[in-house]
Structures are given as C-alpha cells and as structure tokens.
Amino acid sequence: xxxxxxxxxxxxxxxxxxxxxxxxxxxxxxxxxxxxxxxxxxxxxxxxxxxxx
Length: 53
What we know:
Layout: H1 3-10, H2 15-40, H3 48-51
C-alpha cells in the first residue's frame, strides 16, 4: 500500500483532494529521482590502496 493509499484510507478525501495528493506524490517522486541521479548515481569510488584516495 502506498502512502497515498494509506492517507486516503485514513482520511475521507474528496476527488479534488485525492488528485492534489496524487500530483504532489508524483512531484516528490520525480524530485527524489533527480536528486538520486545527480548526486548518488554519479559517485566515483577509488581504491585507497592504489589511488591514495
């Protein structure tokens, strides 16, 4: 069950509120994906023994 589904189950939401939650969920997911791609995915690891890093 996603966070959105949990929220909808716990809170009586109108269709407009559910749509807004869906939109924000997509934005937050895309933001995290961009962060992970830009920072976590581009790390270069060096061997301390061979490269002194």
